[in-house]
Each structure stands twice: as structure tokens, then as C-alpha cells.
Amino acid sequence: MDYIAGELEFIWVNDGYIITDRSQLDRLRREQNFQMSGEVDDETAVSIGKFAGANIIVTGRVDGEGNLQRLRLRALDTQTAQVVGVASERL
């Protein structure tokens, strides 16, 4: 998963996006005393992104098993929580 995150960061930074890495989000989450366990849901991700000053936040997960795994990404607008983009790619 670190490899995928690194590749996405490389692509997006080269396309001109400003990336906030996970360690910054973790620090922000602690500061706001978010009580989360397991996956970050869309509502929490939007709240974290808004607090960090982001316009868009991308969440992702890997679904499936073995040769049937897929990476699924969602781009969420932090002002409206609207899904503004999705992607699904076989791993």
C-alpha cells in the first residue's frame, strides 16, 4: 500500500497538486481529539481535510482477495462532501 500511495503522490505533485501526507493528518486528528477506529469514513475524512485547508481529499481502500484485488479511490469536496471523482484499478 505504501508503494501505491508513493506513486499517487508522485503523479499528483507533478500535476501541480499540493499533498498533505498521512502524518500531518494524524497530527491534526489528534489535535481535534477525533475518536476513530478502523477505517476513516467519508464524513470524518472531509472534516479532517477541511481543518487542514484542503479543497479535495482522496480516500481509498483495497477490495477483494488474491488476483481479484482492486484499488478504489474517491475524491471528496471538503466544502460540500460531494464525491467529485472515483477510480477503480485492478492490482
Beta content comes to 25-35%
Radius of gyration: 14 Å
CATH architecture: 3-Layer(aba) Sandwich
**Overall geometric form:** globular
* Number of E-type strands: 3
Query: Given the structure, what is the number of helices?
Result: 3
Main sheet?
A: 3 strands, antiparallel
Unreliable spans are: 33-37
SSE sequence, one letter per element: HHHEEE
Percent of residues in helical segments?
25-40%
Structural category is alpha+beta
User: What's the CATH H-level superfamily name?
Assistant: ABC-type transport auxiliary lipoprotein component
Name of the top-level CATH class = Alpha Beta
Q: Estimate nothing, just give the exact number of structural domains.
A: 1
**How are the strands ordered across the major sheet?**
1-2-3
> Which whole number gives the mean pLDDT?
78
Task: Please report the distance between the alpha carbons of the first and last residues.
Answer: 11 Å
Might you state the CATH topology name?
A: Rossmann fold
List the defining traits of the structure above.
Rossmann fold; alpha+beta; 3 strands; 91 residues
Give a quick summary of the entry:
The protein has one domain: Rossmann fold (3-Layer(aba) Sandwich), CATH 3.40.50. It is 37% helix and 26% strand.
